[in-house]
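Reply to dn_fold:

You asked what the input looked like. This is it:
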Amino acid sequence: MEMLNYLHDEPLFAELKPEEAETIKGGLTFSEPYTTQGVSTRLRIRSGPSIDDDNIVGYWYPGQVKYLQSPAILKNGFRKFSSSVNKWVSIKFIKRAPGKPLPD
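and this is what came back:
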């Protein structure tokens, strides 16, 4: 049996840019695809995690796929799109869509 010797070119932690190293240090985040469920016209995207938050910052239409940060940021039955934006949507009206997560 012949043994193969080869080098696998993989960056070491020391070779990473500071922002890449911080991502690994803080844990990886991904964006997962989601779509609406039980929505016939549009789903309100709010600036806060409450139905009492009247500041509507957008709409999510049936069949649209949007990417939400994973691990999820949840509060009061709402899910935040990402830690960097103030967009919240009710978890009752969304479901995971087919597709692979994307690294942030």
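The mean pLDDT is 81.
Hope that clears it up.
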